[in-house]
Automatic annotation (TrEMBL):
InterPro entries for this protein: Expansin/allergen_DPBB_dom, RlpA-like_DPBB, RlpA-like_sf
CDD domains: DPBB_EG45-like (cd22269)
Entries under Gene3D superfamilies matching the protein: RlpA-like domain (2.40.40.10)
PROSITE patterns per UniProt: EXPANSIN_EG45 (PS50842)
Domain Expansin-like EG45: 41-144
Organism lineage string: Eukaryota, Viridiplantae, Streptophyta, Embryophyta, Tracheophyta
Pfam family, one: DPBB_1
Domain of life the protein comes from: Eukaryota
PANTHER family attached to this UniProt entry: EG45-LIKE DOMAIN CONTAINING PROTEIN
The name this protein goes by in its record: Expansin-like EG45 domain-containing protein
Source species: Gossypium tomentosum
Length: 144
């Protein structure tokens, strides 16, 4: 009995097609992972009075629904261009394991009023309570 196999040319073509498929899948996965990662900084809470702000003055319309907003440090302020930017923020560490599992999206409404700013992001009380169990500065990952 004679075994008939596939010609070698088809086998090479299938192998290179599989390699190309693997490469495309790898690139898509890598893009997804890199897209999730952000910068690392610190976050602290700040409370009222929230007005006036450097972005919207005395207008209460500047605050997003849910009161999830932030004042940012000089490094993120960008000469006021950061007004209205949104950042996804996630607590990653801090004293006494303060982090809650979820991430939130905050909108920039102000420049930090302290010089130097005590954190990269100063979150409204409601925003800070959403990511941390205790009221102390925490380490966060954030991405626009």
């Amino acid at each position: 009995m004679i075994k008939v196999g596939k010609p070698k040319g088809q086998q090479v073509m299938r192998t290179s097609s599989m390699s190309a498929t693997f490469l495309v899948m790898y690139c898509v996965l890598l893009f997804d992972v890199v897209g999730v990662l952000g910068d690392v900084g610190t976050a602290a809470s700040y409370g009222p009075p929230y007005l006036p702000t450097r972005c919207g003055g005395y207008s209460e319309d500047q605050f997003p629904p849910g009161e999830l907003f932030a004042a940012v440090s000089d490094g993120l302020w960008d000469n006021g261009a950061s007004c209205g930017r949104k950042y996804r923020v996630r607590c990653i560490s801090g004293p006494k394991r303060p982090c809650k599992v979820r991430s939130i999206v905050v909108q920039v409404v102000d420049l930090c009023s302290h010089d130097p700013c005590p954190a990269t992001l100063q979150l409204s009380n409601k925003a800070f309570d959403a990511i941390s169990k205790i009221d102390t500065k925490v380490n966060v990952e954030y991405a626009q």
